[in-house]
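Q: what sequence does this backbone want?
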């Protein structure tokens, strides 16, 4: 018997797509959003329109986001959990060679769209004592070359999550930040502008996190007893660890 509804952003790929599978298997209804409508439709076709509602729009388009929210079918209108997962990294160049348009796209998606979505759903999440799960990254805690704006956008997500907890004190709404390390999804293909070989090379032999691993983590958080809040989860593949600082001699 389906009892709860989750809105999963970035449901067309990676962590979001795996989370759709996990939540539907667990009996939830899912609103699946992303830009690629055909991928979202495949989820509806696989699970049925009573289990998955596809909401295809660009997260950076606030009017489209609001229209998708207003157009939710009645069975999907009461939202218990928001998974703020849609996001991306673009480029690996150092800041001084980076493309400003890519920086702005990361901020618009990872930061501005995430807070807009959260602001939109907060009233009903409070009414239903719901939950917000934000997908941040280890890139928000550990600096690395080429991480520049991507890492900074994820530091925002981590801190926004903790600040939300303070503001939502006493409401019963739970807020969690998941901070994954290296995970094999479409992330690196997107980051490199479509270079599948670069993606394959990055993950080769590294036994990276899988999308299913993160879906399981989200599911675990969503099913905590109501008196518990998982504040932050940082998870890496065993093969990955933090490296030391760098020194430029006689610079
Ligand atoms: P994927 O590229 O596989 O998935 C990204 C998802 O975000 C897609 O469904 C994509 O949908 C959606 N998305 C991106 N831009 C927009 C937009 N403007 N509007 C709507 N949806 C958008 O990567 P992951 O699954 O790895 O990434 C999910 C989250 O996890 C991201 O926030 C990422 O930063 C984070 N993360 C990833 C890690 C990794 O190593 N893979 C590690 C730590 C965090 P579509 O293209 O259809 O719009
Ligand atoms: C993605 C993880 O380490 O590639 O957020 O930046 S990392």
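A:
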């Amino acid at each position: 018997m389906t009892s709860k509804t989750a809105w999963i952003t970035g449901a067309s790929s990676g962590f979001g797509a795996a989370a759709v599978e996990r939540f539907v298997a667990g009996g939830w209804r899912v609103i699946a959003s992303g830009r690629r409508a055909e991928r979202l439709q495949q989820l509806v076709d696989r699970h049925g329109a009573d289990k998955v509602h596809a909401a295809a729009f660009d997260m950076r388009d606030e009017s489209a986001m609001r229209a998708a929210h207003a157009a939710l079918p009645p069975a999907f209108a009461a939202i218990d959990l928001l998974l703020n997962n849609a996001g991306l990294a673009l480029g690996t160049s150092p800041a001084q060679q980076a493309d400003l348009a890519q920086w702005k796209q990361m901020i618009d998606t990872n930061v501005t769209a995430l807070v807009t979505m959260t602001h939109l759903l907060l009233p009903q999440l409070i009414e239903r004592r719901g939950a917000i799960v934000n997908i941040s990254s280890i890139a928000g805690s550990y600096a690395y070359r080429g991480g520049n704006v991507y890492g900074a956008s994820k530091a925002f997500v981590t801190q926004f999550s903790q600040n939300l907890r303070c503001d939502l004190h006493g409401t019963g709404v739970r807020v969690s930040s998941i901070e994954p390390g290296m995970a094999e999804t479409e992330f690196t293909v997107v980051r490199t502008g479509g270079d599948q070989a670069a993606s394959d090379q990055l993950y080769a032999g590294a036994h990276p996190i899988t999308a299913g691993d993160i879906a399981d983590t989200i599911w675990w958080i969503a099913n905590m007893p109501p008196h518990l809040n998982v504040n932050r989860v940082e998870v890496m593949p065993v093969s990955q660890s933090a490296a030391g600082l760098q020194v430029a001699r006689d610079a």
